[in-house]
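Hi R.,

As promised on Friday, here is the backbone we talked about, encoded as structure tokens. Could you run it through your design pipeline when you get a chance and send me back a sequence?
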């Protein structure tokens, strides 16, 4: 293809071999430790205070390192993780329903459509059980059964009930736990907390990550912050699509700046489109709302059998309804994974059987569950979600079925990391949604919280010290070092450039248009012609952005247009790479569905011979360079994924 060049293959040199159950244990044992007395002399920067960053900063500080923590919100506990609703997976097998570490491992590799690393996923499944213990010890109020054991529910892609939850506010409760651990360390003076600070550049000295450039979002002051290692826990980039379920502030800037400095970006095209979101209602919207997947435990998805049937749901008799997930996928029914459920919803809507004013909606109906279990039971499980739905749509889901439609929700792609979660820049570690590591081409529900906390509480605190212990001496680097001066100057110059264009279009208008291009051509279904068109359109729009954007105000204080402009500028570059990645991957897998590659019954058609690899992209300023990391499957053999 004319849009990129191919470089040397890469490998994950940190992953141990041997029986998979022993790999993490061995890696931990072989890791070199830092003497407790030396830890306080070492400084680690952690960008992000969500579940990944908050747990990592608290744990590293608890170990004795000096931690500097950053987030752009006014409080660390406002990180986007607070929005997570449905739950967190763990192989506790409290239900005695056949779950095990191996089954969670198996489901996750299969759920990711065989595009993740077995070693990483096995470690994730092992650590999942420790996460629940840790959080319970912190006082996280998970739902409990009558007998006192923690309760669980089902999520997509699994036939066991392994999802722990706290009503529809699991992320909030988990984040409060991590936040309290973080606050304890702030109180002890081991964590220096910098809220309302945005990282705008990475500082690399002698090939190692040694600091960041940040802007104080309240005063506008730009400073350089030095450390012995840098951790990015800056979340996902779903907002490249403008409309998504992510918080408005979520962005790619921290990762993208690191990418431009040498960190490979892996599988950028793998985007998760979540099947149960409130449908778009008009042009005025700037955000979409998720209705948690947990609702598919009790809600039944259907559309009318006849095209164009616009009778109210209650007037459509049972035998004129198509419970299409139950019909097509009898073994998993309404709990098929997200990629499958989203595509099925798109298909029935494309056939003209969608519901609601736009025709882009399907029903999620609780009538059966309410009849069977009673309204009170449904209220106890999902009360806050039902309330949220009613507040947004004006319809009472206890009385009429919810209307839902797929929307952008999560990004499986992210900065490439090895088994130690270290990027291709030594000393730069990446955790949580910001890395690409564990979910392959499709993430199963309730696995993001598991991964973020696994990375932050358990993996990074074992691997980062090994880097520090082996790194030798760290040259003293301060603000006068030429690399630091250059990084800071680049930030200042970019801000000045954005402020000086003084054009006639708002940042939001560009972002919205970019999002439309991405949704149309790099969303639920992609094709060669569409992706090529998208790349041309993105390039043209990006050129216009740099000539016509208007950023009012100045850089001397709070300026939200300026913040957004910097983030949208990075989204433009990322969007192009996403389309190139989607174009080069001539197969369908998980969230990446290429129209040209489908089975006769419309399922994703993988091409394991040609594409069983991680696509790690190197930034060159010109054409990106593709490095392939081959994936080996010793334990879960790739098959055509079936949930039928
Ligand atoms: C509505 C919704 C519901 C969800 N529900 C579930 C669920 O039930 N179960 C599940 O497993 N997953 C769920 N997810 C996914 C999950 O919430 C996220 O993947 C996860 O919380 C991400 O955590 P994180 O720590 O990686 O990043 P985040 O929580 O997004 O935190 C990012 C942090 O980085 C900081 N940051 C970013 N860029 C910069 C910068 N340049 N400078 C300084 N700071 C920066 C931010 O301030 C923030 O502190 C849900 C997602 C959404 C959108």
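Update: got your reply. Pasting your designed sequence below so it's all in one thread:
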């Amino acid at each position: 293809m004319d849009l990129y060049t191919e470089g040397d293959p890469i490998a994950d040199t940190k992953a141990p071999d041997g029986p998979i159950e022993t790999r993490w244990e061995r890696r931990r044992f072989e890791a070199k430790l830092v003497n407790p007395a030396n830890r306080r002399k070492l400084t680690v920067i952690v960008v992000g205070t969500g579940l990944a960053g908050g747990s990592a900063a608290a744990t590293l500080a608890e170990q004795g390192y000096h931690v500097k923590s950053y987030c752009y919100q006014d409080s660390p506990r406002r990180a986007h993780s607070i929005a997570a609703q449905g739950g967190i997976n763990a192989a506790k097998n409290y239900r005695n329903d056949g779950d095990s570490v191996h089954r969670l491992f198996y489901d996750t590799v299969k759920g990711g459509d065989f595009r993740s690393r077995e070693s990483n996923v096995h470690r994730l499944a092992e650590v999942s059980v420790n996460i629940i213990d840790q959080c319970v010890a912190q006082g996280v109020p998970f739902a409990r059964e009558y007998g006192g054991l923690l309760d669980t529910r089902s999520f997509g892609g699994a036939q066991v009930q392994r999802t722990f939850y706290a009503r529809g506010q699991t992320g909030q409760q988990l984040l409060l736990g991590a936040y309290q651990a973080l606050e304890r360390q702030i109180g002890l003076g081991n964590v220096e907390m910098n809220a309302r600070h945005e990282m705008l550049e990475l500082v690399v000295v002698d090939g190692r990550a040694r600091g960041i450039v940040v802007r104080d979002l309240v005063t506008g002051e730009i400073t350089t912050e030095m450390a012995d290692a840098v951790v990015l826990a800056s979340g996902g980039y779903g907002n490249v699509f403008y409309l998504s379920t992510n918080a408005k502030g979520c962005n790619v800037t921290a990762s993208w700046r690191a990418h431009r400095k040498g960190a490979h970006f892996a599988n950028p095209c793998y985007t998760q489109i979540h099947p149960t979101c409130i449908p778009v209602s008009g042009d005025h919207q700037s955000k979409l709302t998720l209705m948690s997947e947990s609702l598919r435990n009790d809600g039944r998805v259907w559309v009318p059998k006849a095209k164009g049937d616009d009778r109210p749901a209650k007037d459509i008799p049972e035998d004129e309804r198509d419970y299409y997930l139950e019909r097509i996928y009898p073994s998993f029914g309404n709990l098929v994974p997200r990629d499958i459920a989203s595509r099925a919803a798109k298909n029935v809507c494309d056939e003209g059987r969608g519901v609601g004013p736009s025709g882009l909606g399907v029903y999620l109906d609780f009538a059966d569950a309410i009849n069977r279990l009673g309204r009170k039971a449904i209220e106890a499980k999902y009360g806050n979600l039902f309330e949220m739905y009613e507040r947004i749509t004006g319809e009472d889901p206890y009385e009429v079925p919810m209307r839902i439609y797929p929307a952008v929700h999560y990004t499986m792609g992210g900065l490439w990391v090895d088994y130690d979660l270290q990027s291709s820049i030594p000393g730069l570690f990446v955790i949580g949604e910001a890395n690409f590591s564990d979910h392959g081409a499709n993430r199963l529900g309730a696995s993001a919280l598991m991964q973020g906390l696994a990375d932050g509480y358990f993996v990074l605190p074992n691997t980062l010290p090994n880097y520090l212990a082996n790194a030798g001496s760290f040259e003293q680097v301060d603000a006068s070092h030429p690399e630091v001066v250059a990084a800071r100057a680049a930030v200042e110059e970019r801000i000045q450039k954005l402020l000086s264009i003084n054009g006639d279009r708002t940042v939001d208008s560009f972002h919205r248009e970019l999002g439309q291009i991405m949704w149309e051509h790099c969303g639920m279904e992609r094709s060669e012609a569409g992706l090529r068109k998208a790349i041309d359109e993105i390039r043209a729009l990006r050129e216009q952005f740099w000539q016509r954007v208007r950023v009012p105000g100045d850089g001397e204080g709070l300026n939200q247009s300026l913040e957004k402009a910097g983030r949208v500028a990075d989204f433009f570059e990322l969007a192009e790479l996403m389309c190139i990645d989607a174009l080069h991957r001539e197969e369908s897998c998980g969230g990446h569905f290429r129209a040209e590659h489908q089975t006769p019954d419309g399922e994703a058609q993988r091409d394991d011979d040609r594409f069983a690899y991680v696509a790690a992209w190197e930034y060159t300023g010109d054409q990106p360079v593709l490095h392939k990391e081959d994936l080996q499957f010793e334990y879960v053999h790739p098959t055509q994924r079936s949930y039928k």
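One thing I noticed while checking it: The mean pLDDT is 96.

Thanks again,
M.
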